[in-house]
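Technical note accompanying the year-one report. For the benefit of new consortium partners, we illustrate the data format agreed upon in the data management plan: each record pairs a sequence with a structure-token string. No post-processing was applied to the example shown here.
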Amino acid sequence: LAAARRALDRVCFTTAWRAVIATVHKLLLEEVVLEARFTIPGALQLNIDGDAFISVLRPYHRRPENFFKELKEACALLSLDPATASSLAAILETVSEDSQGSETTEDPDLRQKELRAVLEKYHVRKMTPEHAARVLAQRDKV
């Protein structure tokens, strides 16, 4: 990054590194979080590794963690104690049931707001309830 910063003007460098960061974030979410199985120690290690990666970006942006909010939320969900994670997964399971066409008399927008409020209690604000349910499904049952 330092070499790219020296070689490019400020606008080009900012555009390029933000594109790279967006790609890395997407890769970490889709290819690591949603493909691997996680124990609590594994989730904690992912969080440590994410923090280390973010610290590398600090010289280039005042708050680089803003580019990795969903990754940090995924780490928080994967690190929940088993009882809490199981309970939250059961609540979020209704999302997949609703999306599979089961008849419900409840307003879907209201249900989404309720689920988002539940997630907010765990500091999950950016991730959708559907995505949170997929992340929780990656927890190892051990």
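Partners are asked to follow this layout when depositing records. The chain is about 70% helix and 0% strand.
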